[in-house]
Sequence to fold (197 residues):
Amino acid sequence: MFLITLSIAVFNTAVQGQPLYDEMSDPCKEKRNTYEMYKEHVLSLQLVINKLQEKYCNVTACPDDWISFENNCYLFSETKTTFEAAKDICNKARAYILEDLSPWEMLLTKAKGFTHMWIGATDIRQEGVYVYESTGSRVTNGDWFKGQPGGGRDENCVVASKDNNWQWHDFPCNDRFHYVCKKTIASARKLLHLHGN
Fold:
């Protein structure tokens, strides 16, 4: 009976000229939603564990307002700003703008509610040659969205967009987006030690 019903649905869809996918619900959607929910719960638990370790075990040395995760410290911006301003804020904290998003960093970013964020790469120095700001090394494996980069001389800074699964787009550097500063826990400890904390 199911096969007959499915065949009729396929026939009706074909006759009406509409894609079959629109007529039927996505059988994997519920599983994907459940998977995403569990990933977010795991992330939340990991962040709670990190905070408890910081408070009671003195296992990390991230500055106040920074989040520790997997041997790194992260500062999530509260406001949107230009690329240069974001770079200056991160550099003053002896950090750099997040450059490549690992799956966990994507979740951290999603948990903060960002929809767009600066990536620490530009082609300001030479059009079409994107380099990471922290090291000056050339971007060879950028996660570009289809057709990107495409802005020419008017769009020299890189933004990751939630709408496109955090793939990269080039944008004008004077636009305003959120950003994430990143540094290793080792460098944070060294900095705190130098300041006598």
